[in-house]
Amino acid sequence: MTVKENVKNPDVWLRGLFILVFGVILYFTVILVWLVVVFQFITKLLTGELNRQVADFNGGLLRYISLMLGYITFQADDKPFPFSPWPEQAAAETAPAPRPRARRRSSRTPARKKESE
Question: Is the pTM here over 0.90, yes or no?
Fold first, then answer.
């Protein structure tokens, strides 16, 4: 195809329109992520635990952001939600990953070697 044919191709212009639309959606989605972060922090602060339903929603939201970025950057041709189903969080992502235990520091200070003069 020549440049002239590409410019006249309605699919190219439609893709450009969807890129703009998903770019705006992505902007507001990042704001939504920050609201979820603040809500989860306050929930953790007050109850000591995370809200499981919000955490699951946040997992789907992160996958949605990934799908939008893939479409916008031409890594994928499939349009994300609302043109495809909402991404569900994978089962492996649902279970919290085990945390490594932090080493405790000894309350004793190490003995210093005396410098010979």
Answer: no
